[in-house]
Amino acid sequence: MENKNTNPLQKYFRQPKIYLSLPSSGKYYPAGSLEISENGEYPVFPMTARDEIMIKTPDALLYGQATASVISSCIPAIKDPFSMPSMDLDACLIAIRIATYGEMMEVSIKVPVTGEDKDFDLDLRIMLDQFSNVEYDNAIQLDDMVVNLRPLSYREFTETSKKTFDEQRIFNVINDADMDEGDKLQTFTNSFKKLTDLTILTLEKSIQSIEVGDQVVTDQAHIKEFIANTDKGLFESVTNHIEEQRSKFQVKPLIVDATPEEIEAGVPETYEVPVTFDQSSFFE
Asked: Are the CB atoms for 109 and 256 separated by under 8 Å?
């Protein structure tokens, strides 16, 4: 007998459109934040009308809440999107875009030299395939020391991005012609210090442990003290390694072939176009 509480419209509910292999392979998720798949693939549902409204709300986007809500709705296996490793973010957004609007996306670019607008169709499956064979190298050997790293969570990534945005916005204030020069200098000094502190804090959060011989240091207070007192070369080596790992999981620039007419006008035969994710336009 059919349950009276069963919605007769249930068969019309949205269904998964594609299945996603997470770039992280499910690693770095805290317990309970991801429903682990046996085959490593996760169903991706198209957005609902509510999701589409959320993803186009600027304030919600700035704080990451809109993106987290949409990921939770469309990839329900990710129970806590704020805890997901940030390396999975772009792949999840692309997969949701494909599930909702299809595999092709119209992109508008400016042609170098001429500055003309140019539209073409981008195959999002190719973008998604960029993540298929990428691995996160979580250890760096420095003399007799091994530094073990972890990717930032989406929550940490969002907090860092917002603080960076706030401080960079202050630099625009400095260009105010009516602002006293002394105030400009003080504002610049304060903002630069905050951005420097933010870089150091990001490094601290990215270090999971440090091995020296048989000793493994996991105490964050000790790691923080170490970073504050290490030499510039070691600091840069770890920072550069973190940046290299982060860039692996970002969408690569598009390589565009110029037309004969564009080449004649001085445009290079091929040129790169960065692909950026402005969610308010990416999900149109």
From this structure: yes
Sequence-distant (6+) residues with CB within 8 A of 236 are none
The pLDDT tens digits for 83-137 are 999 999 989 999 999 999 999 988 888 888 888 888 888 899 988 998 888 899 9
Separation CA 134–CA 82 (nearest Å): 22
Rounded Cα distance between 135 and 24, Å, is 8
What's the chain look like in SS3?
Answer: CCCCCCCCCHHHCCCCCEEEECCCCCCCCCCCCECCCCCCEEEECCCCHHHHHHHCCHHHHHCCHHHHHHHHHHCCCECCHHHCEHHHHHHHHHHHHHHHHCCEEEEEEECCCCCCEEEEEEEHHHHHHCCCCCCCCCEEEECCEEEEECCCEHHHHHHHHHHHHHHHHHHHHHCCCCCCHHHHHHHHHHHHHHHHHHHHHHHHHHEEEEEECCEEECCHHHHHHHHHHCCHHHHHHHHHHHHHHHHHCCCCCEEEECCHHHHHCCCCCEEEECCCCCHHHHCC
pTM score, whole prediction: 0.82
Distance CA 79, CA 32 (A): 7
pLDDT by residue (tens digit) across 158-204?
A: 888 776 666 566 666 666 666 677 776 777 777 777 777 888 888 99
Q: Quote the crossing angle between the two packed helices 89-101 and 65-74, to the nearest 10°.
A: 60
- Do 259 and 268 touch, CB atoms closer than 8 A? no
Positive/negative CA dihedral, 133, 139, 142, 144: negative
> What pLDDT does residue 192 have?
73
